[in-house]
Amino acid sequence: MRQAVRTLVLLATGLLVAAAVQPALADPAMTSQGPKRVAYTPSTASSSALPTADRIVVHKADRRLELLRKGEVLRSYKVALGLQPVGHKERSGDFRTPEGRYTLNRRNPRSDFFLSIQISYPNDADLKNAKQNGWEAGGSIMIHGLPNVLKRDLTYYQTRDWTDGCIAVSNSDMVEIWLLTHDNTPIEILP
């Protein structure tokens, strides 16, 4: 079942990208193999394409993640945080979600969770702080959906902070975040 859901997500992603470049493919220039192929870039997307966020803000105290474009909120999602949600992540194993400015830097459609997008934690300041204290800074902080294999009842994940320091959303919200963001999108995580 999970594989079928993943396949549908990847298919939907492909269809949305195809719809975004449809005007470019309508170019009358033809090759002997058919229409000229055009690589997708944001500049070739039509005005009917999905909006993409140019910034993400996470409000830890409110358990909200907002996708923004030109200062306007495109979408807002309920999130779960690390098991120790108050305070900035300082070291590996502290179960805190970091606070500060980072970027989205890698996507993983085959993670242990329903899709995941890595956040660039630790940054230089995080590394410096950990080194000064003799700690490992930790890493692998992600925005992700639910675990692919649930170890608890679904209500557990919906009603509390449960991650090791990541930012978790529902699977349907994760699909939207996946589709409405790009790598290198800035993310600011506020207390």
Task: Please provide a brief summary of the model.
26% of the residues lie in helices and 24% in strands.
What does this structure look like?
- With 191 residues, the protein is of the alpha+beta class.
- The chain has two domains: 1-50, no CATH class; 51-190, L,D-transpeptidase catalytic domain-like, CATH 2.40.440.10.
- The protein has four helices and ten strands.
- The protein has helices at residues 2-25, 124-133, 154-159, 171-180; strands at 30-31, 34-35, 55-59, 64-69, 72-78, 100-108, 116-119, 142-144, 167-168, 186-190.
- An eight-stranded mixed β-sheet has the order 5-4-3-10-6-7-8-9, covered by helices on one side. Strands 1-2 form a two-stranded antiparallel sheet.
- Strand 1 (30-31) and strand 2 form a beta hairpin.
- The radius of gyration is 19 Å and the shape is globular.
- The protein starts with a helix and ends with a strand.
Compile the SSE list and pairings.
Blueprint: H1 2-25, E1 30-31, E2 34-35, E3 55-59, E4 64-69, E5 72-78, E6 100-108, E7 116-119, H2 124-133, E8 142-144, H3 154-159, E9 167-168, H4 171-180, E10 186-190
Parallel strand pairs: 3-10, 8-9
Antiparallel strand pairs: 1-2, 3-4, 4-5, 6-7, 6-10, 7-8
Features of this protein?
single chain, 191 residues, alpha+beta, L,D-transpeptidase catalytic domain-like, 2 domains, eight-stranded mixed sheet, two-stranded antiparallel sheet, 4 helices
